[in-house]
Amino acid sequence: MLEKLPEVIGHALHGVRAGLDKIIFNTLGMRQGMACISLTSVAFVDHGPLPPRYTADGEGLSPPLQWAQLPAETTSLVLVVEDADSPTPNPLVHAIVVGLRPSDGKLDEAAIPSRDNEGAAGLHVGRNSGLQAAWLPPDPPPGHGAHRYAFQLFALGSVPSFSSAPGRDEIFEALREHALASGLLIGTCERPDGSIKIEKTAPAGPLATG
To answer: Which is one Pfam family of this protein (predicted)?
Structure first.
């Protein structure tokens, strides 16, 4: 969505960012006393760069995720991915998935539908900021600096009746009422000179399949 902005615009907007304080994880008003879910990925480390295959300049796939330490009373999970550094009033939503089963313990690579991938059957996917029920690959503006993509997982004690493709507002209200615990994993992406910045990192392990 933002990669087509001229680099000069990216530099001019360098200080204009939604802010990490505006992601759902930090705005629920329930942080105190909430349990913490362990949310990790075999593809990247917390606050580390996202491999290009998960960005708009690569295959644009959704990355694999794993979770643990859920409250015993968890009945379902909600995943929300937001760009905390988008030059917009609120973070851009890159993915919403509701109704994830706690017992699965993971979401495989490419599970969320994307531009060239149908995704996993049976996932209940919400609307991203492009108004599509899909994974919106990271595509920060050239020259805007590093963007932090917040992968947020929420445990629910009961299962709300979501619409066919719920958006951010609907998700937020449901989480305010039903969230039991939350987890946060951040991946970064940057286009300093008009292209995705690729950082060499040792592989974290084999990608999940299924």
So the answer is: PBP
